[in-house]
């Protein structure tokens, strides 16, 4: 408790409060720009904070990392382009809400989720971090492999609407993740001699292409503005009220977010999509999901905001990042001389707990910013397409370019843009593909590790109790969508 | 049978068959450890795609692309003229994108920015808004240059030409 009291006193020093506010605003701006997610934002900010006190710099970076998720949800809602993979699920209902002129309500939902999900997540992180980390440590390679397969199956079954097509898209994503150096044998695969692909398909560039470029192309086809209704109805506060009318979804989504967050390498994108799928399954009106259901915004937003603290548990306590952004955060910690691992809590408790307290305060700052600025940002949906399309393209392709300063990355983004467009026109959603791409390396690495541990025997994948539960859930997620209609036909036939 | 081939979904699935087949075939020369995972995935994906394609052809009713909130259903009811206009805009957009990327290769990303704003402003904007579009293009290019080129030191003017 003394450490927490010292951390509170430290965070309330003026320079740390300034760093917190600057990180919050910078994070939201970075999040708003499609393609420039927390990882790119942190990478771009490193030169700026290099000379700062390590604890102050980490407060800035932590706020940036946390708030970029909220910024990303703004673009997900307003321009159908998630700022980062973590906002992928928000697009599904946030954008349809905006199309119906209820952008203000969606923004209220997302700000409330940032406040509630973030606060719940941070309280759990501060007081329950050791227990959560212990549970995550029980997972071996086979459990990680099966967790990723479960996430892919759930997403394929629920997001796509047709399980088999979702699985095909996920398969393509997993296969694309095998491009580049093989993580096990170090062999080059599918690069065809093109150097920019040697380190694999860069995630941010692929993300920019699949969402920003595809969306820009879809917008370019139509002559109107994003919002089909010429004015933005629905207030921010209506969104806040709607949010608090769904306590069950808030609790379930927070639990999903925390659970997924604490699992290394699964990440916020999975948390959001799983929470969306859960809310859809539990809803009395699942048909409204994907058409602008408020629950479809509040569930993924709450989960991703609750996930981020859990994500940090693995990053700080184990040194295993839970997402791409967390991986960069891990790098930032190392740059500032804070070695991640269980000893970080012993050697640098003041830095770690200052970071936690700062992140706790950030949830409130985000809500204030959302309350004051977000509604003005909604006006962006009324801009004509000849302005918004090049704006999306310039900012997102610039984000793609700025990471390695290579035009080849722009080409990769354009290629993924074309792929995303073809998939949309062919009745496929690119979300399972993206998840396959994100989880691909983890799936393959743990597949090989599990086989190494078992000496090549596949029994390891159903040896433990956790494995059996994960397999059962995977099978259920795949056959679940067919069980409902089958049962209906069966009972109607009997009648 | 011909109706089936009018569906974009069917063509995407046929293309995916080739893509998955390609992933399997190109993995053959890889060492055992490197090819095992992609070939396993490609095999499963090939089977799934073949099943999905088979189901499309076996089903009696005309294929209905189950598209989650995408424009497909809207496209189906659009009249031919609107569809042509959309296609024209799509090709224009790709032309601008490719031209701007080529310009970026030659003169740096800042040229891409100019090409994108100017291209979309000219091709998609109204004539009466031309001045406004030009002002937006110039302002955005300057903003991009100042924020990314000067403050963040991204080399926006590094191209093949200089």
What does this structure look like?
The complex is a heterodimer of chains A (495) and B (162). With 495 residues, chain A is mainly alpha-helical. Helix content of chain A is 74%, strand content 1%. Chain A has helices spanning 2-11, 14-32, 38-49, 54-79, 88-99, 103-137, 141-158, 163-176, 203-221, 236-244, 247-262, 267-282, 295-318, 324-335, 344-347, 349-377, 385-404, 407-425, 431-454, 465-494; strands spanning 180-181, 188-189. Chain A has a two-stranded antiparallel sheet. In chain A, strand 1 (180-181) and strand 2 (188-189) form a beta hairpin. Chain A is globular and about 65 Å long. Chain A starts with a helix and ends with a helix. Chain B is mainly α and 162 residues long. Chain B has 2 domains: 4-71; 78-151. In chain B, 73% of the residues lie in helices and 0% in strands. Chain B starts with 7 loop residues before the first helix and ends in an 11-residue tail after the last helix. The model of chain B has no long low-confidence stretch (mean pLDDT 81). Chains A and B meet through helix 5, helix 8, helix 9, helix 17 and helix 18 of A and helix 1, helix 2, helix 4, helix 5 and helix 6 of B.
């Amino acid at each position: 408790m003394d450490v927490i009291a010292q951390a509170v006193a430290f965070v309330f020093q003026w320079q740390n409060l300034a760093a917190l506010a600057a990180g919050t605003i910078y994070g939201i701006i970075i999040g708003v720009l499609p393609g420039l997610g927390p990882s790119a934002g942190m990478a771009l900010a490193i030169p700026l904070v290099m000379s700062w006190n390590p604890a102050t710099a980490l407060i800035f970076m932590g706020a940036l990392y946390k708030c970029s998720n909220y910024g990303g949800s703004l673009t997900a809602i307003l321009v159908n382009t998630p700022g980062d993979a973590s906002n992928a699920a928000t697009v599904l209902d946030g954008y349809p809400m905006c199309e119906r002129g209820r952008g203000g309500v969606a923004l209220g939902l997302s700000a409330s989720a940032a406040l509630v999900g973030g606060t719940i997540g941070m309280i759990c992180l501060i007081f329950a971090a050791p227990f959560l980390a212990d549970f995550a440590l029980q997972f071996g390679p086979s459990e990680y492999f099966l967790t990723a397969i479960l996430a892919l199956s759930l997403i394929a079954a629920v997001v796509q609407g047709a399980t088999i097509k979702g699985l095909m898209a996920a398969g393509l994503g997993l296969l694309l993740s095998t491009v580049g150096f093989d993580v096990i044998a170090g062999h080059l695969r599918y690069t065809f001699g093109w150097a920019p692909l040697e380190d694999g398909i860069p995630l941010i560039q692929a993300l920019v292409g699949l969402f920003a470029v595809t969306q820009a192309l879809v917008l370019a086809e139509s002559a109107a503005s994003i919002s089909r209704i010429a004015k933005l109805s629905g207030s921010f506060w209506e969104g806040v009220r709607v949010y608090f009318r769904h306590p069950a979804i808030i609790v379930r989504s927070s639990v999903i977010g925390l659970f997924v967050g604490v699992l290394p390498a699964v990440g916020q994108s999975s948390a959001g999509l799983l929470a969306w799928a859960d809310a859809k399954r539990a809803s009395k009106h699942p048909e409204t999901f994907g058409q602008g259901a408020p629950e479809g915004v509040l569930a993924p937003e709450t989960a991703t905001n609750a996930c981020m603290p859990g994500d940090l548990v693995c990053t700080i306590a184990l040194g295993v990042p839970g997402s791409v952004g967390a991986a960069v955060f891990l790098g930032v910690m190392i740059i500032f001389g804070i070695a991640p691992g269980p000893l970080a809590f012993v050697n640098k408790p003041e830095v770690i707990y200052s970071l936690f307290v700062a992140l706790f305060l950030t949830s409130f700052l985000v809500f204030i910013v959302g309350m004051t600025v977000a509604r003005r940002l909604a006006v962006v949906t009324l801009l004509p397409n000849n302005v918004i399309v090049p704006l999306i393209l310039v900012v997102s392709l610039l984000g793609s370019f700025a990471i390695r300063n290579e035009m080849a990355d722009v080409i990769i983004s354009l290629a993924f843009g074309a792929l995303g467009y073809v998939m949309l026109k062919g009745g496929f959603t690119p979300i399972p593909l993206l998840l396959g791409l994100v989880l691909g390396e983890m799936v393959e690495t743990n597949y090989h590790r599990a086989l190494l541990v078992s000496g090549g025997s596949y029994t390891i994948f159903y040896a433990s109790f956790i494995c059996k539960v994960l397999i059962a859930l995977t099978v259920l997620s795949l056959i679940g969508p067919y069980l409902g209609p089958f049962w209906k036909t069966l009972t109607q036939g009997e009648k | 049978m011909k109706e089936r081939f009018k569906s974009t979904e069917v063509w995407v699935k046929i293309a995916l068959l080739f893509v998955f087949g390609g992933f399997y075939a190109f993995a053959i020369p890889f060492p055992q450890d490197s090819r095992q995972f992609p070939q396993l995935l490609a095999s499963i994906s090939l089977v799934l795609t073949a099943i999905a394609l088979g189901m499309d052809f076996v089903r009696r009713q005309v294929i209905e692309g189950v598209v989650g909130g995408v424009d497909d259903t809207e496209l189906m009811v659009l009249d031919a003229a609107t569809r042509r206009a959309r296609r024209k805009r799509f090709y224009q957009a790709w032309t601008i994108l490719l031209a701007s990327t080529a310009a970026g290769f030659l003169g740096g990303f800042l040229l891409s920015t100019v090409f994108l704003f100017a291209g979309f402003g000219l091709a998609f904007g109204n004539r009466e808004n031309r001045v406004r579009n030009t002002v937006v293009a110039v302002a955005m290019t300057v903003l991009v240059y100042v924020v990314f080129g000067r403050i963040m030191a991204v080399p926006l003017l590094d191209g093949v030409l200089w």
